[in-house]
Amino acid sequence: MEGKKDMLNWEQKTLVSELISGLEAAKKLQARLGEPSSLPPSSSSRAAEMNEILMKQILSSYEKSLAIVNWSSAPPVQLILKAGSIAPVTLIPESPVSINGSPRSEDFLDGRGSSNTHRQNHLFNSKKRKMLPKWTEKVRMSPERGLEGPHQDDVYSWRKYGQKDILGAKFPRSYYRCTHRSTQNCWATKQVQRSDSDSTVFEVTYRGTHTCSRATAAAPPPPASPEKQDTITKPPIAQKPNDLLESLKTSLTVRTEGLDEGEDVFSLFPNTPPFYDYGTPNDYFGGLMESSPIFDVVDWFNPTVEINPEFPTFLPDSIYY
DNA sequence: CAGATTTGACCGGC
DNA sequence: GCCGGTCAAATCTG
User: Fold this and answer.
1) According to the UniProt record, where is the region Disordered (predicted)?
2) Whole-number distance in Å between A115 CA and B8 C1'
């Protein structure tokens, strides 16, 4: 009982902290956006970069908060993000924490003869894993604007650890986990499944939030996966819209300029980026597009866009119990 | 050579 | 027994 209380306190603390953080970042961003571009052209890109950082920070804070809310409260939360040019994306938190876990109950040594230590470790982690908050995001891709959704998480590096054909599904499901699982004990995982009804939609199910300090994850490594077209991924921050479009048409794989080709599939895996890390998306699209074709998030907070400039509403207003 | 992906096998839940 | 999720050896990539 006491424990629960402590937990709540911790959660509340974290929640408040995250919200405050997001709020402050938002204020700054709002101020920046509101400011007439008194900046010299030269610093405009830097300004854009800064905005990007702030934006990521905001999203991160809110996502964490959401995760916490979802995790600590049973009522399902449906977050629907709507943004002018962006297609609606749905966050569908699944089982908050109901499932008590033990994927692989008490097994000390499986058929594969792994070491005991590993097994026990695994056991522990498995249980823990099931306790992690879980939610699903539907990300739609449209040739016109590329990927649409809150995938600000290319910043994270994911490592694919499996792929399975799912009964009744046209496309296989891919399993990813944070690259820093072992080094930083980060248990964030995600599953990516292409919708069979609408192949432009990808259902990304996340479990657990990142606890790794992406500081080390830095480098925008195209964690992508040169796998088959199945394992979709969203273009990191792709390059030319044309290429993107092309890729989308073909197999939803996108190449990143800097990368030597290879099928750099994008990774649509948003999560909760502690902070910004990538380069400046805007640079990629230069004047080709007004805003990132894939990552319009910035617009979500841009007063000039159709959406409510007051991002806070982006949360409360869109959460339904 | 280190790190990532592929892929078949294994495991627990239903 | 089937199915989804995960593991880990083999393989690939830069």
Assistant:
1) 212-240
2) 20
